């Protein structure tokens, strides 16, 4: 009997908790989450795409400065692009930034990918290429840009990886879980009538132990008195 009473009390408490949720607040939250979905891309993902664009523009700016420093844009551009030399040209580092930009924007802005394989590919290719170029090339003999461009490209690639893996994907997963929770709570609240009260969950009082035996003994005593 005690277990039945405890179960009925817990059920009443859970129903009160669900019904106590304000439907207006639930609908407002659902509309806000749906509005974010309609935008097509989350705020944190948009920030990531802006940083990828900054990566490309920053490396391009550094490369253009390097072209001007080493004898003018036209002459140096012809030397590094037309007469490309792996051991002394910075043109491949610029192409590496273009490669990262195209792959990441296509994967996470156009296709809205929710996996880390694209960023893992770009970071692995960037790291391997830059390590090989630093070891085999003669960039260090060409001044400060021989250090700056490879190091900046390496750092930017790993910042993009960290930002996506620790900010973009976890935050979007958390927002999706919140939306599912709010929708589930709204559905549970809609199933409960508005006028629900505790009186509708009436449990009969527990019968007194031995009441039937006492009544029978009383009847037997009355019969004995009548016989006397």
TrEMBL record:
<dbReference type="Pfam" id="PF10457">
    <property type="entry name" value="MENTAL"/>
</dbReference>
<feature type="compositionally biased region" description="Basic and acidic residues">
    <location>
        <begin position="216"/>
        <end position="228"/>
    </location>
</feature>
<keyword id="KW-0472">Membrane</keyword>
<dbReference type="InterPro" id="IPR051869">
    <property type="entry name" value="STARD3"/>
</dbReference>
<dbReference type="GO" id="GO:0005789">
    <property type="term" value="C:endoplasmic reticulum membrane"/>
</dbReference>
<feature type="transmembrane region" description="Helical">
    <location>
        <begin position="116"/>
        <end position="136"/>
    </location>
</feature>
<dbReference type="GO" id="GO:0015485">
    <property type="term" value="F:cholesterol binding"/>
</dbReference>
<feature type="transmembrane region" description="Helical">
    <location>
        <begin position="48"/>
        <end position="69"/>
    </location>
</feature>
<dbReference type="GO" id="GO:0099044">
    <property type="term" value="P:vesicle tethering to endoplasmic reticulum"/>
</dbReference>
<keyword id="KW-1133">Transmembrane helix</keyword>
<dbReference type="GO" id="GO:0030301">
    <property type="term" value="P:cholesterol transport"/>
</dbReference>
<dbReference type="GO" id="GO:0005765">
    <property type="term" value="C:lysosomal membrane"/>
</dbReference>
<feature type="transmembrane region" description="Helical">
    <location>
        <begin position="142"/>
        <end position="159"/>
    </location>
</feature>
<keyword id="KW-0812">Transmembrane</keyword>
<feature type="domain" description="MENTAL">
    <location>
        <begin position="41"/>
        <end position="211"/>
    </location>
</feature>
<protein>
    <submittedName>
        <fullName>STARD3 N-terminal-like protein isoform X1</fullName>
    </submittedName>
</protein>
<feature type="transmembrane region" description="Helical">
    <location>
        <begin position="89"/>
        <end position="109"/>
    </location>
</feature>
<dbReference type="InterPro" id="IPR019498">
    <property type="entry name" value="MENTAL"/>
</dbReference>
<dbReference type="GO" id="GO:0031902">
    <property type="term" value="C:late endosome membrane"/>
</dbReference>
<feature type="region of interest" description="Disordered">
    <location>
        <begin position="196"/>
        <end position="228"/>
    </location>
</feature>
<comment type="similarity">
    <text>Belongs to the STARD3 family.</text>
</comment>
<dbReference type="GO" id="GO:0140284">
    <property type="term" value="C:endoplasmic reticulum-endosome membrane contact site"/>
</dbReference>
């Amino acid at each position: 009997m005690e277990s039945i009473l405890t179960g009925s009390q817990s059920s009443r408490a859970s129903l009160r908790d669900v019904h106590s949720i304000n439907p207006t607040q639930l609908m407002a939250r659902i509309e806000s989450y749906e509005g974010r979905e309609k935008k097509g891309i989350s705020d944190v993902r948009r920030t990531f795409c802006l940083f990828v664009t900054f990566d490309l523009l920053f490396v391009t700016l550094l490369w253009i400065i390097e072209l001007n420093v080493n004898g003018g844009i036209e002459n140096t551009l012809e030397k590094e692009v037309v007469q490309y030399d792996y051991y002394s040209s910075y043109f491949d580092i610029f192409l590496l930034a273009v490669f990262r930009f195209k792959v990441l924007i296509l994967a996470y802005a156009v296709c809205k990918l929710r996996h880390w394989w694209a960023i893992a590919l770009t970071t692995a290719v960037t790291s391997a290429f830059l390590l090989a170029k630093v070891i085999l090339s003669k960039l260090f003999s060409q001044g400060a840009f021989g250090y700056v461009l490879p190091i900046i490209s390496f750092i930017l690639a790993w910042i993009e990886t960290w930002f996506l893996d620790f900010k973009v994907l976890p935050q979007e997963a958390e927002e999706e879980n919140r939306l599912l929770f709010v929708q589930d709570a709204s559905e549970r609240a809609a199933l409960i009538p508005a006028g629900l009260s505790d009186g509708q969950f009436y449990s009969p009082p527990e019968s007194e132990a031995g009441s039937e035996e006492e009544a029978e003994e009383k009847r037997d005593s009355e019969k004995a008195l009548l016989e006397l």
